[in-house]
Design brief:
six-stranded antiparallel beta sheet; 14% helix; four-stranded antiparallel beta sheet; 3 helices; mainly beta; 10 strands; 157 residues
């Protein structure tokens, strides 16, 4: 059953990962013009922006997967994905340990959720049940051994 769910999730999210190609040069993208607000309900990717910390740029996206997961009896509502780029070499960073903590609109912070490496980034299926603004705290220990923190926000309508 786990293999089936993994494969189904991979198929449902394959358009997500096509944008996470390691060949992509994110350093030349104008992130200020990427306004995907309001696309979440249609199942499209939502750009959560980018944050740079000590030579690493983190780019986060999310996709509403609630309908597909509900059909399988699962509680996950979104797939969270984050990719990392070395800002000096302009190369993707695809190895390391990445975890996510989510603070809900009511102020409750989850425990650490380990993100799985996939298609040039790291991701996990998560449940966002409340309406309002969520804060995502991404903690990393990438190949250089340095610990970094990246923060993103998302408003659930």
């Amino acid at each position: 059953m786990k293999v089936f769910l993994f494969l189904l999730t991979a198929v449902l999210l394959s358009p997500v990962f096509s944008s996470a190609s390691p060949a992509m040069d994110h350093s030349k993208m104008d992130h200020s013009k990427m306004n995907h607000a309001g696309m979440d309900a249609s199942g499209q990717m939502v750009d959560l922006g980018s944050v740079t910390e000590n030579g690493v740029e983190a780019l986060a996206e999310m996709k509403d997967i609630s309908k597909a997961m509900a059909q399988m009896g699962m509680e996950a509502t979104h797939h969270f994905m984050v990719m990392f780029v070395d800002t000096q070499k302009y190369e993707p960073i695809e190895e390391g340990v990445v975890a996510l903590k989510i603070t809900s609109p009511s102020g409750v912070t989850s425990g650490a959720i380990k993100l799985m490496g996939m298609h040039g980034g790291y991701g996990a299926d998560i449940a966002l049940k409340e309406k309002g603004t969520y804060t995502f705290q991404v903690g990393t220990k990438l190949t250089d051994g340095e610990k970094r923190q990246f923060q993103f926000e998302f408003t659930q309508q």
